[in-house]
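User: For a benchmark we're assembling, each entry needs the component sequences followed by a predicted structure for the full assembly. Here are entry 17's components. Please fill in the structure.
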Amino acid sequence: MAGRLIYLIGPSGSGKDSLLEAARGPLAERGCRIVRRVITRSAEAVGEAAQGVSPAQFAALQAEGGFALSWQANGLSYGIPRQIDDWLAAGDDVLVNGSRGHLAQTRARYPTLLVVLLTVDQAVLRQRLLARGRESVAEIDARLARNAQFRDSLQAAPGVFLLDNSGPLAHTVARLLDCLEEGHSACA
Ligand SMILES: Nc1ncnc2c1ncn2[C@@H]1O[C@H](COP(=O)(O)OP(=O)(O)O)[C@@H](O)[C@H]1O
Ligand SMILES: O=P(O)(O)OC[C@H]1O[C@H](OP(=O)(O)OP(=O)(O)O)[C@H](O)[C@@H]1O
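Assistant: Structure for entry 17:
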């Protein structure tokens, strides 16, 4: 039986990367893979969760069909390696750090996907982005404005599992694992 694509989305700074890192071990124990993204971000700003490439390298990978999914946002290009289709076909679940802006296209390609929307209060979000210190204040403001565009429509959308990350990360990890194990209606 084919595995399930779990599409984790949420505003920049909501904690997607932190959640993936914290849940990496328990997810692996449950046979769920986490794919490493390809991003046109400098190598020092990416880690285990992503591979940094130049725009030319990204274009070459895309041209040779290397991506199952790809999108542009925040001035960067993001690619999800095509390898996920082999994993899914082999019956493994695959968790992807995705894009809200690319949700419709992802749903078209993977109709049975589980969408997990990470939410955080906007004021907390701003504090977390400032504390993370990866972007300039102008870039942070642009991310917050982008979040405001998506927030209301996505939080009310059917088939989207809302996962609040305003509290301790350990709670969010536990809730994610519950969702995957219990077959919440949005997880079915
Ligand atoms: N539950 C949490 N409580 C406190 N800080 C958090 C929590 N989750 C994430 N953070 C912090 O918020 C910042 C943004 O998290 P990050 O994982 O980089 O978000 P994203 O990948 O969604 O942009 C990081 O500095 C991270 O340490
Ligand atoms: O359409 P959106 O939902 O806004 O998403 C756009 C991109 O921004 C996030 O990545 P990014 O590398 O910027 O992660 P960050 O959240 O850590 O900044 C997200 O994972 C998407 O790749």
